[in-house]
């Protein structure tokens, strides 16, 4: 069968090499078969029932779109749900179900994922290095999904760097962007933490799919998951710090505005005081009949305004500190 966007399948037998897998046939007992489905409706194919029916909980979670990341360990194998993120104007998460028994692995996604297809083609060309056993191949798939989280974290960190530059360049920054990134980091951690726990559980209860000799490789990707969690936590702390800095910058800017308005109000109050005195309706007011009374009042207002301004400057209430 030709490879389509819904189905990829091949069987590796150390004695017979790599052969194409036909979906109308059950997985062969000799060798290792990888079936990569990108259409969940293919799960109803009766050919896959001998593998899928062993893991009813994971199958139900995926088909009913619960997508709760977890692991289902059985004596004959294991199944787990994971996610694969894509960075396209934000981070998108695509659920992947993995069903593994000693001679067969079935991966299912909601759409064709280029990363899975690329790994499948690499496995067909070089099955020894990618994974000649179900445990090694499972490690390669999980390692791929974890590796895709690093670009997602880098994408969010680039956004934070851009916001940080805007904040310290005194340009306006929308606080909602930081809140949105904080929400993305929270969702990212919600996806990474269960995967980390799944790998830890797989290390403890991975047989018969994972042999004891393959455990160090799974310990390595477990360490990768710990590193991812630490990076997400650091990014969350950075978001919190940037939010505090942004609020501090906004508060300082508001204080400068209030200082300026205070100086202007004080100057106008002095001018209003003089205008109020000379505007009182009394018959006998000094300078009322004076020829230079109006220029004198205006000059007095100007003199007091300039005096108040330089007094504030001397007190370092305004101007350069």
Concise summary:
The chain has 321 residues and is of the alpha+beta class.
Strand order of the largest sheet: 2-1-3-7-6-5-4
Classify the secondary structure makeup into a structural class: alpha+beta
Integer average pLDDT? 85
Number of distinct beta strands: 7
CATH homologous superfamily placement of the largest domain = CorA soluble domain-like
In angstroms, what separates the terminal alpha carbons? 78 Å
Name the shape in a single word. Answer: rod-shaped
* Radius of gyration from the alpha-carbon trace, in angstroms: 35 Å
What is the count of distinct domains? 2
CATH-defined fold name of the largest domain: Beta Polymerase, domain 2
Helix count equals 9
Polypeptide structure, described:
The structure is a single chain. The protein has nine helices and seven strands; from the N terminus they run βββααββββααααααα. The chain is α+β, with helices and mostly antiparallel strands and 321 residues long. It has two domains: 7-249, Beta Polymerase, domain 2; 250-314, Magnesium transport protein CorA, transmembrane region (Methane Monooxygenase Hydroxylase, Chain G, domain 1, Up-down Bundle). Strand 4 (71-74) and strand 5 form a beta hairpin. The radius of gyration is 35 Å and the shape is rod-shaped. The N and C termini lie far apart (78 Å).
What is the fold's blueprint, element by element?
Layout: E1 7-13, E2 17-20, E3 32-37, H1 49-52, H2 56-63, E4 71-74, E5 77-87, E6 91-101, E7 104-109, H3 114-125, H4 127-130, H5 134-147, H6 149-168, H7 175-205, H8 215-278, H9 293-314
Helix pairs in contact: 5-8, 6-7, 6-8, 7-8, 8-9
